[in-house]
Model the fold of this input.
Amino acid sequence: MAPTSQVLVKQTSNVRTIILNNPQQLNALTPEMASQILELLNTYEEDPSVKLVIVKGEGKAFCAGGAVSVFLNVSWKEAATVFYTAYTLDYLIATYAKTQVSLIRGIVMGGGAAFAVHGRFRVVTDDTVFAMPETALGLFPDVGASYYLSRLPGFFGEYVGLTGARLDGAEMLACGLATHFVPLEKFSALEDALCKANTGDPKIINNIIHDFSNKNPKLKEKSQFFRLKTINSCFSRRTVEDIISALEEEAYKNKDDWISWTIKTLKKASPTSLKISLRSIRTGRLQGVGQCLIREYRMSCTVIQGKVCRDFFEGCRALLVDKDKNPKWEPSKLELVSKQMVDSYFAPLDDEDWEDLKLPVRPNLTSYAISKL
Done:
């Protein structure tokens, strides 16, 4: 096993295992890690001796997301370069020609979730915890999240993307974010079996994972997935304001801790983030993964540029720096976030040095679909 900074590579005959090795930070993806993994995946795709690529995290987390604190100490154009690499990496994973398996233990959040979910086989387990917590930080679910969230059952993707709700492994399988659920005590044996099989044939790989799988892991009694009827009724509304009003109507009819939590969470999130996130997910329903990434790159650059709104920097201050957990959003209310403000996140940046994300031509569009998602 050869260490390359915070990325480890294990070679087993024709199988390559990429291990995120930043456990002190829950394997948060640094710019250097993203660049290394992009280089490795490009190399493996072109190497005829590599048949299967496995991705996992060292320790008890898969990946807690991108290391967002990096963006506080660089210019917005330097940050845009980091986004460019991350988005290109996720596009490569989504269109990868070789069979790829994500072994998802522990926390998988934000950009880390995208890193896992774009893969063909997504294996979760007993301790897996998924979330897209960006709206609490002044961001939005990105790196292709508007593609896969918009394709979850009903309006479950809007619910997950706007609230940052945490899902366990069984819920990930039920909604389609995962392809398989393998009990934790069998996880190591599954990895060994995949390496021993020494094949990239998707049917064989699927059968191997299937043999280790719990086909119908039991959803917990209060699983959010059981709330899909209410979620569809409320989160299908046209605007964030309408969604909250619908939830408040439900709360009036029925006192319910989950509905109260949902309303409270939405009202605590960045109003700007909520509005751009909802439009992003809705737009993603009609776009391919490449189109989603190109649009989200525009949005991320607009966020980090900070001309329209500086909620991201305030969210980082409140949650990561001062840790008072009391962000002062500006605009402070949904009704103060104008359509013109929201529109600006979806338009090219007004800067002569800035360019849209240019993704390479990929013949394998797309290696994963929402039937497997």
Q: What stands out?
A: The chain is about 45% helix and 10% strand.
